[in-house]
Amino acid sequence: MIKTIKTVGILTLSALFVGCVPAQGPKPSIHTPTIGSPVQTVQYGYPPQNYRTIIKNYFSNKLKRANMASYTFSKPQRAYKRNGLAYGGDISWKGWLVDVSVITQSRTGRPLKPKPYMVLFSDSVIVEDILGSKHKLITRVGK
Predict the structure, then answer these.
(1) What is the DSSP letter of 16?
(2) Distance of alpha carbon 60 from the chain centroid
(3) Phi, psi for 128 (deg, rounded to 5)
(4) At the N or C end, where does the chain have fewer CB atoms within 10 A?
(5) What is the pLDDT of residues 6-51, one digit of tens each?
(6) CB under 8 Å to 68, separation ≥6 — which residues?
(7) 3-state DSSP of 76-131
(8) Could you tell me whether strands 91-103 and 77-82 are parallel, antiparallel, or unpaired per DSSP bridges?
(9) pLDDT digit string, tens, across residues 69-128
C-alpha cells in the first residue's frame, strides 16, 4: 500500500513538472541582412541625394575652420548598426553609410592629418557620424 502511494506520488509530481515545460514551437525568424541576400529598398530607404553638400553643411557647424577643409567621399553603401550586447544586440539602424575623409588646417594654415568619419544616413538625413573607418557594431551590406 505504501509502495503504491509512493509510486502514484512520484508519477503525479513528474506529470506536474512535465506539464510546466513550454512547448517547443517554431522560433520566429528575424531577417538580418547578409552579403548576397536580396536587399529591399523598404529596409534601407533610398540612397542619399546630394550627400556631399549635406555632409559639408553638417561638418561646417562641427569642425573648426571647416570653410578651409577638404573632403574625400566614398559612394553611399547599405549598412546597419546593432545595439551592444548589453542592450540586446538588436538592429537599431538601417540605412546608408558614406565614408568621408576630412583634412582641416591648423591656425597657421598647415594641413593636418586626414580624419576618417563614417556618416550614417536615413532617408537623406544624417543620423550620426562616427570617427574612424571601422566600428564593431556597424556592418556594411554588399550589393
Answers:
(1) H
(2) 26
(3) -165, 150
(4) N
(5) 787 777 767 666 665 555 555 544 555 555 555 455 678 888 989 9
(6) 104, 105, 109
(7) CEEEEEECCHHHCCCEEEEEEEEEEEEECECCCCCECCCEEEEEEEECCEEEEEEE
(8) antiparallel
(9) 899 999 999 999 988 777 777 888 899 999 999 999 888 888 889 999 999 998 889 999
Secondary structure tally for the chain: helices H, strands E: 3, 6
- Report CA torsion sign: 56, 58, 63, 67: positive
Cα 76 to Cα 33, 67, 93, distances in angstroms: 17, 23, 15
What whole-number distance in Å separates Cα of residue 18 and Cα of residue 24? 13
Is pTM beyond 0.90? Reply is no
Q: How far, in Å, CA of 123 to CA of 97, rounded?
A: 11
Strands 115-122 and 77-82: unpaired
Question: Given its phi and psi angles, is residue 88 left (phi above 0), alpha (psi -120 to 50 degrees) or beta?
Answer: left
DSSP-derived letter for residue 1 is -
